[in-house]
User: Which sequence fits this backbone?
């Protein structure tokens, strides 16, 4: 399924699920049931982590495409933070 076919809620849910999966992989909490050889586990986890990361980027890019904002640019983050601090 393409990211453009997903609703905003589906995209946010997928981002949350990918975040949880990546955290579990990094913390060593997810092992593939097919990995009986301990030498293949790190590679399998790395491939799964890479897939989750690519999906995460795709989901986030789709949300940014739908809701473009200059504040989303990393170059503007400091300025936006300063404006909020001065306003509040």
Assistant:
């Amino acid at each position: 399924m393409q990211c453009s076919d997903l609703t905003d809620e589906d995209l946010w849910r997928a981002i949350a699920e990918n975040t949880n999966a990546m955290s579990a992989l990094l913390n060593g909490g997810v092992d593939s049931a097919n990995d009986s050889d301990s030498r293949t586990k790190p590679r399998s986890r790395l491939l799964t982590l890479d897939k989750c990361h690519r999906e995460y980027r795709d989901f986030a890019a789709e949300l940014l495409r739908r809701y473009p904002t200059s504040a989303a640019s990393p170059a503007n983050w400091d300025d936006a933070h300063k404006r909020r601090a001065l306003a509040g």
The first helix runs from residue 8 to 26.
